[in-house]
Specification:
The chain is α/β, with parallel strands linked by helices. The protein has 10 helices and 19 strands. About 50% of the residues are buried.
Length: about 425
């Protein structure tokens, strides 16, 4: 690892990137690869990395229509957690936390992972019953999830308001100490850097415009930079998976909606854990730069726009300031929208498709938190043709077989029921 003096850091800071060493190449696409991954976000780059690292497959191209991490990877609230309810979901998401914990060292790139814990406020009798059920389930799989009294919640969150006349009074909470956050673009950059070092081609500004088939088998893709042959194609284009899959004649059971968030001006450290206000459908945390990052429910209509609406912002803000009145005078700095793919059973879809050679990684509402484990299990099915044990039950064929993995509380639309 290179070491830099304070003078070299100052010089590089003032150089406006002139003379900076590139951390990954910008190659021209070859005519043919063993594997093509569509999507240069965390899921696609991670899949290419694990193909090289775990399976020795390096003749791989990652095709990104824009810049790396410029899609949903860079448009989320960075939350990483595993408070799920089904026997497939808890080990899957808990392993993702463990992979995140090791990722900075593994990639030799600081992803700024911080296990600060997450507190979910209990604000109704229904959410109290759900919290106990979830805690009992998670304990079976060794995932720590603690039920808290109101006094314990107040001790952990001194700025919390608990007035008796609140619309959704706080009657307790649950705490997952292993939950955390990470720098989203650093995750994409770290995977890109290591995949490139292993021989993978990471190709930006290369939009896929079609997927070629011979019979029921994929044989390549058409792009804005020419045709590329490949017998194995993986789709990991969060927000656009249904659009890309349609290029191969595949219809997916998902719906895309905008999911918005916003951040405040930086303030002094005041909020240690991630906080979920289930009654109000909002969640918030403080970033390493001091900004209060706030998110909530998705917009009620299907769309691919990357911006939010005032009504949702107003609803989220009203719930946030009722719970934390100290934030009333805080100024919002910027707002954005990502695209969340709503899956019927609120569970990721990872694995093979009816089109031979075509695989998919659709994380749904679990997008950022599942990057390492989803990428790893997607790489496994591409390399071996078999579903990874951690992703058993996550295949697309579960809809045909009627074996849905019904989850609750996994996305913003379920916050009110958590």
């Amino acid at each position: 690892m290179k070491r830099y003096s304070i003078f070299s850091l100052i010089r590089n800071a003032l150089s406006f990137h002139d003379g900076w060493e590139r951390v990954w190449r910008s190659p021209d696409p070859r005519p043919e690869y063993d594997v093509v991954i569509i999507g240069g976000g965390g899921h696609g780059l991670g899949c290419a990395y694990y193909l090289a690292k775990d399976h020795g497959i390096t003749n791989v191209a990652v095709l990104e229509k824009g810049w790396l991490g410029g899609g949903n990877t860079g448009r989320n609230t960075m939350t990483i957690r595993s408070n799920y309810i089904r026997d497939v979901s808890v080990p899957f998401h808990d392993y993702s936390i463990e992979l995140y914990r090791q990722l900075s060292r593994e990639l030799n790139f600081n992803i700024m992972f911080s296990q600060r814990g997450m507190v979910t406020l209990i604000q109704s009798a229904a959410s109290s019953r759900d919290a106990m059920r979830r805690a009992n389930t998670m304990h079976i799989y060794g995932a720590d999830y603690r039920v808290l009294s109101v006094a314990a919640v107040k001790k952990m969150l001194p700025i919390l308001a608990t007035p008796a006349n609140a619309r959704f009074p706080v009657v307790g909470g649950v705490y997952q100490p292993r939950a955390g956050i990470a720098r989203h673009d650093a995750v994409a950059w770290g995977y890109a850097r290591m995949a490139d070092a292993m021989g993978v081609h990471v190709i930006q500004n290369c939009e896929v415009t079609g997927i070629d088939r011979v019979g029921n088998r994929v044989v390549g893709v058409r792009t804005t930079r020419g045709a590329i042959k490949a017998n194995k194609i993986g789709i990991a284009t969060a927000g656009h998976n249904s659009v890309v899959a349609a290029m191969a004649g595949l219809r997916l059971p998902i719906e895309t909606k905008p999911l918005q968030a916003f951040v405040s001006d930086p303030v002094k450290p005041i909020l240690e854990p991630i906080v979920v206000c289930g009654g109000y459908g909002a969640y918030l945390m403080q970033s390493d730069k001091g900004e209060i990052v706030v998110g909530g429910a998705e917009d009620p209509y299907p769309s691919y726009q990357q911006r939010g609406t005032y009504a949702i912002t107003e609803e989220i803000v009203s719930g946030m300031v009722e719970t934390f009145p100290i934030f009333k005078r805080m100024r919002l700095m910027r707002q954005w929208g990502g695209m969340v793919e709503l899956i019927p059973d609120s569970t990721p879809i990872i694995g093979k498709t009816p089109v031979e050679g075509l695989t998919i990684d659709i994380a749904g509402a679990g997008g950022f938190k599942t990057i390492p484990v989803a990428a790893k299990t997607h790489a496994h099915v591409i390399a071996t043709g078999h579903q990874h044990e951690l992703a058993r039950g996550y295949g697309l064929d579960r809809y045909e077989k009627g074996r849905l993995v019904l989850e609750t509380g996994v996305g913003s639309r379920d916050l009110r029921r958590v």
